[in-house]
Amino acid sequence: MSLDWILGFTPLSGLILAAVEAESLALAAGAFCVLNLAVLFFLFLFGSPRARNLFLVLLLAMFPVQVLFLGVPARLAVLHMIVLGSAAGLLWIKARRLDREKLLFLEFVRKVNGAVNFEEASVLAVRFMREEFRYPAVSVFLAKEGKEFLERAASEGFPAEMVQVPKDGSVQGRAFRTRESQLVDDVLKDPEYFPGIKGAGSQLCVPILWKNRTYGVLDIQSRRVRSLGSRELRTAELLAGILGEAFARMQEASRLSQQLTRTRILHDVVQELARSRDKRDMCQKVLGLLSSKLLYPVASILAVESENPLRLGYLASTKLSQSELKRYSRQLNREGGGLVTLSASLGKIHNVPDVKVFPEYRKVGFGVEGSQLDVPILFGERLYAMLSLERETPFEAEDEDLMLILSRHMAVLWALFEAMEKLETQALQDSLTGLGNRRALEDVLSLEEARLARFGGTVSVVMADLANFKTINDRYGHLVGDRYLKETAECIQKNLRACDTAFRYGGDEFLLLLPGTDRKGVQEVMNRVKSECRLKGSEDPEGILLDFGAAVCPTDTASLRTALRLADDRMYKNKEARRAGLHRE
After folding, report:
1. For the chain, which end, N or C, has fewer CB atoms within 10 Å of the first or last residue's CB respectively?
2. In the 3-class helix/strand/coil scheme, how is 282-304 assigned residue by residue?
């Protein structure tokens, strides 16, 4: 049998005990009254509604039993019933009031759980306190990250200009700092009172918190001194607790929603990366998505230009045009490299909440001087670049995790692009001399022919051949022959301009393309190369000897390919003339 049923039958058990053990009926009736008063209070405090109703029915049934069967005087029985009935009535009113408050708070919990943000929940709380409990002035102040004030989220009864209160120098701020409720009986006696409603007398401030997080303060003010007491304190603390839990739930829901959104965006970014043509295209796509989707105001990618000493250069940036990248790269390295170079030297992610407290920070013309997040783009032990983000508010752990995942995807693609570039270079480059090969020559010839057709000008074609290569190979072996070829390529490359191009045409033959060079200029180039090559090749006292042949387009012919054949013919004629002891150029 449950406790409620036992309590319900208590009037009967009390009456039996009083009748059996007491010598006087009056004394028994009095004991019965006192016992049932105690049970009545206990039931209304802890019992269920069914137990209370059962108790009242049995209590009424005991009246005729007392008068008719036990001989208790009618006046005494009526008096007992009046006492018990009055107590039951008062307790019933109290219970109904408590039940109503429970229903009100349950309805408030339901509404708050339907709110989508802090502001909407705060409006519901203020309206609930004003309408249901008739408080004269109610306001909710919320804390903002990095702000020195508590900002008003909702209020009724307060002046419109009261939009924020300081965290230091106010009762609201004291409740926020100490995480304890503040009940002020007379605001004029509190030195930290911050002016609120006109003619305020008392104030109650309760922190809105959940676990270790304080979200804000619930502020109640009255115009009468000592008009707010323990009942108002308990009600406000209960309401603040409901708000705190609701805020925590909203924050967690917002965090999960943001995390899901960022995961989707990261998926989109990775898909875009897979469509990139090269490293620069990849960087431009990444920065574009970081700016448009994740709303990072400043994002840059700095590639490693040299490892010892470590130097970084801007490859792409949301705040720099292509023409500004080199200029700001020089400025950054001239001023020590900044925080991003420090992070690169450590090879670790570096999250700086406030860059102004770091002496290593360098503002490169477009920085926001707030917080900075630097993420290395690493593949294995190889550092390729740095992803650097800047904004006014501090970066959170979620930003670090997201950028770390992105940097790993970028590192894999970066390594792939470099491998592809290496393969492309090898496909267009002679492996022994490092000069362009025949395939590279075909590409350059096509470009030069198009340039000549559109803009005009001249292009000289020079063929060069090692005069004594077969003798060197036969006498000293192929390793020495290979060294001669390398030294010749170095001499040729050293004496060319940036716009000139040299190729290994085949065997011991080299081809030079010299844009904008006439016959006299070709002769000067050939003389410089000859002079320097004679200083090479220690096995032969004459050094490395070269035979040259040249043709100028369009002076000798209108076609570059015809000029190539013409230069080849002239080179062999010069070779034959040299062997016959004649001098030809």
Report:
1. N
2. HHHHHHHHHHHCCCCCEEEEEEE
Residue 220: phi and psi, rounded to 5, are: -125, 130
Best CA proximity match to 118, nearest among 150, 146, 154: 154
Which residues participate in catalysis according to the annotation? Answer: 508
Measured distance CA(122)–CA(129) in Å, rounded: 11
Domains and CATH numbers, the chain: 3-109 (no CATH), 120-254 (3.30.450.40), 276-426 (3.30.450.40), 438-579 (3.30.70.270)
Strand (E) positions, 191-336?
A: 202-210, 213-222, 298-307, 310-317
Distance, CA of 469 to CA of 473 (rounded, Å) = 6
Contacts 24+ apart (CB under 8 A), 288-295: 288/318, 289/265, 290/318, 290/389, 291/318, 293/265, 293/268, 293/269, 294/262, 294/265, 294/402
Question: Tens digits of per-residue pLDDT, 299-348?
Answer: 999 999 998 889 999 999 998 888 888 888 888 888 888 889 989 999 99
- Digit-coded pLDDT (tens) for 353-381: 888 888 777 776 566 678 999 999 999 88
- Residue 576's SS3 state is helix
Q: Cα 547 to chain center, whole Å?
A: 64
Q: Shortest CA distance to 300 belongs to which of 282, 281, 285, 319?
A: 319
DSSP 394: P
Is the peptide bond preceding residue 309 cis, with omega within 30 degrees of 0? Answer: yes
C-beta pairs of 427-431 under 8 Å, 24+ apart in sequence: 430/503, 430/504
* DSSP per-residue string spanning 117-134: SHHHHHHHHHHHHHHHH-
Residues of the chain with pLDDT under 70: 1-49, 51-63, 65-99, 364-368, 537-542, 582-585
